[in-house]
What does this fold into?
Amino acid sequence: MIGAQRNMFLRDIWYFAVPGESLAPGAMVHKVLLGDPIVIGREADGTPFALRDICPHRGVPLSSGALFSPETSGCGTSAIECPYHGWKFRPDGHCAEIPSLVPDQDMDIERIKVRAYPVREVQGNIWVYIADDAHPDAAPTIDPPQVPDFDDKVPNIRESMIFDCHIDHAVIGLMDPAHGPFVHQAWWWRSSKSIHEKAKDFAPNPRGFTMVAHTPSSNSAGYKVLGGTPVTEISFQLPGIRIEHIKIGKNTVCGLTTVTPLDENRTEITQTFYWTMPFLSFAKPIARQFMRAFLGQDRDMVNLQQQGLKFEPRLMLINDSDVQAKWYHRLKTEWAKSVEDGSEFVNPIEPITLRWRS
It folds into this structure.
């Protein structure tokens, strides 16, 4: 049994923030991540950055201001101008200008700083590193997630949806292996009559666990459109990253699912796909409808779940179908402990075969 959820977000780790294609040079976007306001921008040369989206002067969101290039900022670097009093901040967070100061006023504006977050753009995805508040300026010790076999390629298709729940329920709902025939009943996927026993081998990975390469279940009709005999490997890693790597002969399809907490009660799920099969590009309009339908089914069920969770019931996890959910909680606990103690993260997962019916 597990008790009521803990409103705990992991720190010292990368979170998917925004799609790279959504952020043009010179643009900024406001985003709430882990309950904190963040402005994510892209300099004129294409370099992304992220700052706490609050001007330290009067609290106005910096994202409501303007982003100037080095040629127009008057500071020699890119700078965000607060719309209230014109204070300018460089992408590293340091104040570059306070227009109201007169020449003989001795004030070291460099000491004024907005929190800056490490940012990396990988395979068309912009990731933000959220360090623990005990060491907010700490440099990342790990790299952002990356899908295999696609090097610096950008996605072929992407869809996002917001679930009205805590990240824990979104993650567990998405990794749950037994809900498919009930939540995802559809002619193009599964029916409640298709349930049969399955056995999958699992192994640990650096920050999670992997369902090792296997042939997809016969009642997973969605794989049939790929043709041939697909072999898939599905990995999960903290804080909420799922990567499915599908090989069909010489071709590859990779699905990246990111679960990003916006705050305690809202979580953004983004599904991103890469492929080497040209014919799939012609099917994008249909694929997009399927993606939205699939995500929508999960969202509707998780949102429905909130009606019961508001009474703070004790929840039950059983073997073997809920073992992955148990692992998720254990992984979170170990990661939080390593951040608090400054110790090395130790993955508690061991190789095992799990069996369930779905």
The longest strand covers residues 251-263.
